[in-house]
Model the fold of this input.
Amino acid sequence: MNKIIVCNDPEKLHFNIEHVKVISTKDYLNKAEFINMKQVRLFNLCDNYTYQSKGYYISLLAEARGHRPIPSVKNILDFSARALAKLVHEENFDLIQKSLKDIKSKEFTLSIYFGQNLAGKYKELSQAFHRFFQVPYFRVKFVKNDKWKVHSARIISTIEIPESHLVYVRKFASDYFDKKRYDSSVLKPNKYSMAILVKDGDEAPPSNKKALEKFIAVADKLKIDAEIISPKDFNRLPAFDALFIRMNTHVRNESYRFSRKSQSLGIALVDYPDSILKCSNKVFMTEAMIAANIPTPKCYIFQKDSKDLALESIGLPCVLKLPDSSFSFGVKKAETKEKFYEICQSMLKVSDLLICQEYVYTDFDWRIGILDGEPIYACKYFMARGHWQIYNWSAKKRDTEGNFATIPIEEVPSKVVQLAVRSAKLVGDGLYGIDIKDLESGPTVIEVNDNPNIDYGVEDKLLGTALYEKVLNAFIKRIESS
Done:
C-alpha cells in the first residue's frame, strides 16, 4: 500500500517519515504518477477543508480515484453536524470530567494532533476523540457550567498550528506512522501492512502465542508487515492495509468497533461486522438455518411466558442457550424439570429470548474451517473428560478442553464438508468454523462460528505453514481488489 501525505507546501511541513511520500496538492491533482497510482492511502493535511476548498477536493478526488483519504469527505462533513459533538460528549462524559477536573476556567480548548496532545495528561482524552473523528488535526472546545461538556469540534489546518507546536506534531506524526519491524534483516519495506488484533486476558483466545508468531513470520515472507495491536490501538487503525481479528468477537466488545471502522475505511478485514453480528446471535443463526433447510438439532426459541411450550416441544434432556453464548459459556444442560426452570430463571434475567435445543451427544464434533467458501482444515474436537461439551470451564485446568485430531479434508465424509460450506454461505465470505455432529440420520450443524481457532499444533498440524499462507493470501486478494 502506497502512503502519501498531501499538503499545500511540503517544504514547510518538514515531515521525514520512512515509506511515506509527502507531495503538494498541485502534484496530486495533476501528475499522472498520482492520478494512476493504485493502492493508495492518502493523508490530507491541506490548509483548508471548507466546502469546495482545495483540501475538500483532495479528499473528494481521492475517493473518486479509488484511493483512501484521511479525512474522508464524510469525516470533513461530520464536523458540521452538532449532533455528533453531543454524541461524542455523551460517550465520553466520565472521561471528560476526570480529565478536566483541575481546570479552573469555564472554557478549555484541546488541540489534537494525530491522536495526541502536547500535555501527556490529556493523552487518554485525545485518543478517545481521535477514535471518534479520525482526522489528523482538530480542536475540541469544552465549556463548564456545573459539568464540563463539549461545545464544539472543528478540523484545523497546518497553518493554524502554532509554530511552537510543530516539533511535537512531527513527533506525533512519526509515532502514528511508525510500525514495529519483526525482522531486522529485511532491507526493503514490505508491500502491505497488517494489524492483528489481540486482547490480553481472553479466556479462550482464537490463536495461541505460537500461532500469532507464525502468522507474523509467514506474513513477512509474503511481503506483509504484520504486528500485534491491542484494543487501545484503535486510533492507529487507518495506518494499516488489513486487520485480522484474533480476539474473541462480540457485538458488545472492541472487536465489533474495530471491524466496523475497518470496513468503513476500506481496510481488508477478517472478521466482517455482519459475520460478528450474525454469528454472535444464536437466535439469528437458528432461524437462518431453519429457513435454509440446513439440518440442526430440534430447537425452540422462547420467552418467559412460553417456557412450558419449549419444554413440551423439546423434552428432556435438553440444552438451554443464551443467544450470544460462545465457547460453551451461557450453554447449560437440563436433565430434569426442576433444573430446566432453574436455568431458565437465571438466563431470563440476562436475555428476553432463550433457545431450547434437543440434546444430542457424540464423542466428538467435526470442526471444518471455511475461508471464502473453501474448506481449509478439518479437526475432530473431542468432548472434555467426563463432560458433554468440548469445554468444561468448571474442571481442573488440565481437563478444561477435550482432545483433538487433525484430519485431511479429503478423509472427512463428503456430506460433512458440503454441509459446512453451505452453512458458511449463510453468513458470507470470511473465515468460519462450522461445528457438525455426524449422526446416524446424517450430519447436523451445531454451530457456525466466526473467528474460529487457528492454534499452533492443532489446526495447522497437517498443513503447517501452508495454512497460514492460505489465510494471508486471502488478505492480499482483498487488499488488491479493493
In short: The longest helix spans residues 465-481. Residues 179-188 have pLDDT under 50 and may be disordered. The chain is about 35% helix and 25% strand.
